[in-house]
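# nightly structure sweep
# worker-07 picked up a monomer target from the shared queue
# config: single-sequence mode, recycle default, output format = structure tokens
# input follows
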Amino acid sequence: MNYLVIPSRRRLANWNRRQRKKHHAGEFTEYGFTLSVQFAAPMDEAAREQYVAALIEQVEALGLTYGGDESSGFITTYTSGSVTLAQRDSLHAWVSAYPAVGRAEVSELLDAWHDDSWFEAV
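# output follows
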């Protein structure tokens, strides 16, 4: 269920640099990833708030931003640019090591502007 129009190679070839930058396409593609968490046991509201606060603190320390709820969401850079594999792996390791988390999964890097397939996976 893809509602976004992904520019074709032919269209990209016809766009100039300004158009590719405006549409975040070609060399200006920005990547992010999904995070999905299953908790080891049900948590009360205070424990969930503590986890979310710690998650946001870790995400911001890596120069990233998070959109979603406590169990799933999409992560991309706070400023223009793409998430690196090192940032993704670092956050995955931190979330996996969090005591209340039973299982954490991250996706491959996805086009943050034109790929909405992550929305159905979350």
